[in-house]
Amino acid sequence: MITFDSVTKSFTDGTTAVESLSLEISSRTTTVIVGSSGCGKTTILRMINRMVDATSGTIRIDDEDISTLNPVALRRRIGYVMQNSGLLPHRTVLDNVATVPLLNGDTKKVARQRARELLDTVGLDQALALRYPSQLSGGQQQRVGVARGLAANPNILLMDEPFGAVDPLVRTELQNELQRIQRDLAKTIVFVTHDIEEAFQLGDQVVILREGGHIAQSGSPADIMSAPADDFVASFIGADRAKRTLHTRVLNGRTVVLDEHGTPAGLLKEVPSGGMDLR
Ligand SMILES: Nc1ncnc2c1ncn2[C@@H]1O[C@H](COP(=O)(O)OP(=O)(O)OP(=O)(O)O)[C@@H](O)[C@H]1O
User: Fold this and answer.
1) Interface pTM (ipTM) of the complex?
2) d(Cα 138, Cα 149) in Å, to the nearest integer?
3) Which CATH class is domain 2-238?
4) I need a surface site. Which of 1, 43, 191, 203 has the fewest CB within 10 A?
5) From the CA of 107, how far away is ligand 1's center (Å)?
6) Could you tell me the mean pLDDT of each successive run of 10 residues in the chain, 279 residues long?
7) Which ligand 1 atom is nearest residue 9's CA?
8) Which residue owns the Cα nearest ligand 1 atom 24?
9) Would you list the domain boundaries of the chain?
10) Which residues, including other chains, have CB under 8 Å from residue 205's CB and lie 6 or more apart?
11) H or E element at residue 251
12) CA dihedral 73, 74, 76, 79 (to 10 degrees)
């Protein structure tokens, strides 16, 4: 569990990016932080691995106050995937991924073996292992970025708009792939996006932010869609439109949610509380 307790981040120029944020992020689930540009998403993410230090308040990982930990050691045990993949241009795909286990003390041979396994995990052909990042498509580069994020076998994976720069089809593929990986690995994923549809597709928990890192609403996609907290949330999620256009149909015993074009938007599945959850 990652816990933010009244966390504020003010930069030296006086900008308060995040003000008094309290938030619990459950382990082994995907939490998506979503909001408009500049509302503090990246700052929140970067405070978790201390790329940015909080000005006040406490962040805990499994009850450990992270301000007491060595930032470099902390960063090594938390995976980080960013929008432009962050790959080293002069290293092969394999070495980009192997760098992480090497830094953590594995031998070159073991690190490369681990890197090859990770290429399989993210669905990349081994034939690409010896290429350089510029010789890959944007979608392939992002897969390498995810492989690198997973390379230290971290419990926590931070993802900052990782699929923001690829075309919609590839983006859908990458989202599906991430869901498959998450079903297998069950990491604590904190995912930042400005795209509410991506948030609803990927998040077990979705946190909708206003300016200044203030939480407008947090909950499961089904909770938020069925009961937007206020007009801000309703307009952010396009709830009025969704209410008009989303409908359900039972197919092969499963309740499928269809959008206005009749395209499946998700599955309703029963959750232990007795409610329904949109997947
Ligand atoms: N190093 C910095 N110095 C001063 N202000 C900063 C710094 N980094 C971020 N900010 C400001 O803090 C606020 C939040 O920025 P942040 O990058 O967290 O937002 P974001 O929601 O991730 O935005 P985007 O979706 O555009 O990436 C913005 O007003 C931004 O200008």
Assistant:
1) 0.96
2) 16
3) alpha beta
4) 1
5) 38
6) 98 96 97 96 97 97 96 92 89 95 92 95 94 94 94 94 88 92 95 95 97 96 94 85 64 73 67 50
7) 12
8) 37
9) 2-238, 246-279
10) 25, 26, 29, 30, 31, 32, 218, 219, 220
11) strand 247-251
12) 180
